[in-house]
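User: tokens in, sequence out, please.
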């Protein structure tokens, strides 16, 4: 038994997790209230290891905000602007496509697109945007757009050609919109949420982001996000998406005015919805579907694929079992600047680590827990890999929402920084897709100090690296 557990007050919860038993809400609160961070981390690490083994992942992605104009004024939000504000912005569809085109050259596999609830853009703007981005990727896959030339990390080149995928294999995934945006779009389209999601899916939407969950408890919600959708509405948007065969992530904004019991209540509602999704058989990994996944079958399982000049680098690891509609959970540490919540400092390192750890232990029906480096900083996110997290999120490239609220992390992470952080933590780095499925494993990646100057192919990257 782990040294930290032997005399810990949390020993019986360690034994529960070791036996594969689910912990209760009272247990989760006890974990949150404990000061024994080492024991808590040991329990979370056990739960993580049982679930995902020694791998830790990251994604090569780009954030893209189409606008920060918003008809709401959530008290905690530092991102939203009104039309009268000088620093408001909105992008045209050609501008979105251009940013996506530039990011594709860097090897991204995901665009993560959110914005405010825009006061005047029509529903067609959103469907046209999805169609235009889909067409860009289709053109690239068919060879009419250039494939990634220099990839992922302008400061360092990972020489792992055997495991590098073709541009067709690394299909661009459109992960877009929070639940409140979906409600807004449904209102614009004058259609039900289900019909709206169907239309967005037909236009190119592939998964929903998890933003907007904040804290579900009504009293807290009205104190930090008055006018926003209710917890029931947030959960129902995701439930409807899962019923349509979609998958999504979910979040919790912690460290503001909520209590620890409020956090447990939030996790309880997410676990319940995930139970529901699993009971209904939602969330079969894309890799189990030959039409959808880049790792639909390993070469040994599919002789046709073994003839390919670019066979998949990583064998399919996941079974044809429902994993749930949520592919991962991302706890978000609150950022206190430029908003109306009376909190002076962001959550401490202790608070961030215990929240990751309790999430891993309590959310036993979630495969993946992400340490969000934008809010935690990369140093603490790396430590979180030993406190239940198995993912560091992504390169991001251009983050606005947390930085407008005072986050001091850089605007982007290079792939090599994430690989280095994972390897130092004793884990095997894996580049993943949006559904946390492996794209390539970097067990034998070169040392992290093998760097070279920026390639000069991306102005946004160069600007953001200059501020990193
Ligand atoms: S959190 Fe979202 S909905 Fe609320 S004000 Fe900000 S952008 Fe608008």
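Assistant: Sequence out:
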């Amino acid at each position: 038994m782990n040294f930290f557990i032997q005399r810990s007050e949390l020993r019986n919860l360690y034994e529960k997790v070791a036996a594969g038993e689910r912990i209760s809400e009272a247990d989760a609160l006890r974990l949150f209230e404990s000061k024994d961070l080492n024991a808590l981390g040991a329990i979370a690490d056990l739960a993580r290891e049982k679930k995902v083994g020694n791998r830790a992942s990251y994604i090569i992605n780009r954030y893209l905000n189409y606008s920060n104009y918003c008809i709401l004024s959530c008290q905690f939000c530092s991102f939203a602007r009104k039309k009268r504000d000088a620093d408001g912005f909105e992008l045209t569809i050609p501008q979105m496509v251009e940013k996506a085109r530039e990011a594709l050259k860097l090897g991204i596999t995901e665009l993560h697109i959110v914005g405010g609830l825009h006061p005047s853009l029509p529903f067609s703007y959103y469907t046209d945007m999805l169609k235009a981005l889909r067409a860009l990727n289709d053109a690239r896959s068919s060879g009419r757009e250039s494939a990634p030339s220099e990839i992922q990390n302008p400061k360092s080149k990972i020489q792992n050609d055997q495991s590098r995928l073709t541009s067709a294999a690394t299909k661009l995934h459109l992960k877009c919109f929070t639940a409140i945006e979906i409600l807004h779009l449904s209102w614009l389209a004058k259609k039900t949420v289900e019909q709206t999601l169907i239309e967005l899916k037909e236009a190119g939407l592939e998964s929903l982001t998890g933003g907007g969950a904040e804290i579900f408890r009504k009293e807290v919600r009205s104190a930090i996000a008055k006018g926003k959708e209710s917890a029931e509405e947030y959960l129902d948007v995701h439930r409807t998406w899962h019923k349509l065969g979609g998958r999504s992530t979910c979040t919790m904004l912690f460290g503001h005015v909520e209590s620890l019991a409020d956090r447990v209540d939030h996790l309880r509602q997410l676990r319940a919805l995930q139970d529901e999704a699993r009971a209904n058989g939602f969330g079969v990994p894309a890799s189990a579907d030959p039409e959808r996944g880049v790792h639909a079958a390993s070469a040994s399982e599919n002789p046709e694929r073994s003839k390919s000049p670019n066979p998949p680098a990583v064998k399919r690891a996941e079974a044809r079992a429902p994993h749930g509609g949520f592919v991962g959970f991302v706890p978000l540490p609150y950022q206190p600047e430029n908003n109306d919540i009376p909190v002076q400092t962001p959550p401490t390192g202790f608070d961030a680590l215990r929240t990751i750890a309790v999430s891993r232990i309590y959310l036993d029906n979630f495969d993946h827990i992400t340490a969000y480096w934008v809010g935690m900083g990369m140093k603490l996110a790396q430590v979180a890999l030993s406190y239940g997290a198995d993912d560091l999120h992504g390169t991001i490239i251009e983050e606005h929402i947390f930085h407008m609220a005072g986050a001091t992390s850089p605007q982007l992470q290079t792939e090599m920084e994430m690989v280095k952080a994972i390897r130092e933590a004793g884990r095997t780095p894996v580049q993943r897709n949006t559904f946390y499925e492996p794209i390539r494993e970097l067990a034998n990646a070169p040392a992290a100090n093998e760097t070279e100057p920026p390639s000069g192919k991306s102005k946004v990257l160069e600007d953001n690296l200059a501020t990193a």
